[in-house]
Amino acid sequence: MMRLKCLAYGLMICLSLRGQVAHIQAENSYVTAGAYSIHFKDAFSFVSNPASLGTISCFQSGIVSERKWMLNELAQTGLAVCLPWGNAGLGILLQQSGDADYNEQGLQIAYGKNAGRLQIGTGFSYLINHAAGYSSVGFGSARVGISFRVSENLTAGWDLELPVFGIAGKINPERGPQAFSMGFGYEWTPDLFLSCKVEKDAGLPVDITAYIEYRYGEQFFFAFGIEGLASAIYFKSGWKKNRFCFQIYTMFESVLGFSPGIAIFWSGKNRKR
Q1: What is d(CA 170, CA 191) in angstroms, rounded to the nearest whole number?
Q2: Other C-beta atoms within 10 Å of 110: how many?
Q3: Which of 148, 147, 146, 104 is nearest to 126 (CA)?
């Protein structure tokens, strides 16, 4: 009788339980709220919405390095490059996270077109993850986004990402998840920016992030944000000189702790002046 029970439980585990084998790439804590802005965007803004590339006016590059929850095993690095292309813009992002036991590499290519008050963007993402002792699994997804200048100070938009290829698992095969986000940014003054973003990933509750950034003069700035789903607090501060910018940032979650990181940016000359 005991053997029959063990056999029944074993079949239930093999056939019924499902593990998370497909997911979005582990994100760093650097807030990219500048996607809904003209003057507060940076090289990573197109990660939130590719349409923001339509209004870039100069070459931009940036690198971030973060220690997620203060763990070396969750360390993340990202490199982004954006460049104007006529009345449009092109962005490329490379990401790496994890260690030898489990790691992820990601590539994003995005394009944004300026159509006056409306910007339209599209992009492609590729994620490959590898766990020690298992074969690597790759996922591809496509995205589209729009951004609209409601007024001189207010910008709003949305972004949709859908899986294209890649299936993981045999018993319960999974594809890459779907994701949707919408948000707005309001430049209260040339030195003060407010933003709110709503995100919905497949299988996860709706998440809302509120963000505020203040610039003191031309060299110093401070930013603060709150993520509603995890009740996490964001903080960012930096120094800018000419076309070089250095930033430190962190996210604090009451259970998991801090995720500190640094970001370095360099931009070219503004061609549209």
Answers
A1: 53
A2: 25
A3: 104
Q: Who contacts 150 (Cβ-Cβ below 8 Å, separation ≥6)?
A: 156, 184
DSSP the chain: -HHHHHHHHHHHHHHH-------PPPPPS---GGGG-SSS--TTGGGT-GGGGGG--S-EEEEEEEEGGG-GGGEEEEEEEEEE-SSEEEEEEEEEEE-SSEEEEEEEEEEEEEETTEEEEEEEEEEEEEETTS--EEEEEEEEEEEEE-SSSEEEEEEEEEEEE-EE-SSS-EEPPPEEEEEEEEEEETTEEEEEEEEEETTS--EEEEEEEEEETTTEEEEEEEETTTTEEEEEEEEEETTEEEEEEEEEETTTEEEEEEEEEEE---TT-
Interval 90-115: pLDDT, tens:
999 999 888 878 888 889 999 999 98
Rounded Cα–Cα distance for residues 67 and 236 (Å)? 15
Cα-based torsion angle of the residue sequence 172, 176, 178, 179 in order, rounded to the nearest 10 degrees: 130
Q: Which tokens go with 264?
A: 């370095």
- The amino acid sitting at 17 is L
On whether the CB atoms of residues 211 and 198 are closer than 8 A, the answer is: no
Mean pLDDT along residues 166-190: 78
Rounded CA-CA distance 8/24 in Å is 34
